[in-house]
Amino acid sequence: MDEQARKTALRMIPYGLYVLTAGTKETTIASATINWVTQTSFAPPLLALGIKTDSAVYAAARESRDLVLNILGQGQGGLAFAFFKPAEYADGKLGGQEVRWAANGAPILTSVPAAVELKVRHIVELGDHHTFVAEVTNVHLNQQITGRPDEAILHMKDLGEKVFYGG
């Protein structure tokens, strides 16, 4: 297979950007910017998330099985970049960002337009990112969404011509 052609073709798949959080005030809290997310079922509502196996959020998600998918909005590229590296929970903030707590105990970033509480139902252990299949247990709209909801989100392409993940 031509490696450059493979990268180009796979990078044609559009991605939104999200900050995944796991853990609670009583346990280790971890977070990371992720982009491999898709809905896979209406009933029950299920999402599939690709999580890098050597990340802190992978370990916390695997242990707690309770997650929050914080959906980044237009203009939140700085937030995406901030969570590309490990973020500390200190002084009631995660990576310097205000949080509130989901019913499942995981942190919700208050500055994002929406957040989805998840319960891990299955983990597919293939590749350098394992696929977590998680059920939506609650949702939070932190601000009014007008127009098409999918146009309110931050996309990978919004980070610039040279920013890619995957391929």
From TrEMBL:
<comment type="similarity">
    <text>Belongs to the non-flavoprotein flavin reductase family.</text>
</comment>
<dbReference type="InterPro" id="IPR050268">
    <property type="entry name" value="NADH-dep_flavin_reductase"/>
</dbReference>
<feature type="domain" description="Flavin reductase like">
    <location>
        <begin position="10"/>
        <end position="162"/>
    </location>
</feature>
<dbReference type="InterPro" id="IPR002563">
    <property type="entry name" value="Flavin_Rdtase-like_dom"/>
</dbReference>
<dbReference type="InterPro" id="IPR012349">
    <property type="entry name" value="Split_barrel_FMN-bd"/>
</dbReference>
<dbReference type="GO" id="GO:0042602">
    <property type="term" value="F:riboflavin reductase (NADPH) activity"/>
</dbReference>
<dbReference type="GO" id="GO:0010181">
    <property type="term" value="F:FMN binding"/>
</dbReference>
<keyword id="KW-0560">Oxidoreductase</keyword>
<dbReference type="Pfam" id="PF01613">
    <property type="entry name" value="Flavin_Reduct"/>
</dbReference>
<protein>
    <submittedName>
        <fullName>Diflavin flavoprotein A 1</fullName>
        <ecNumber>1.-.-.-</ecNumber>
    </submittedName>
</protein>
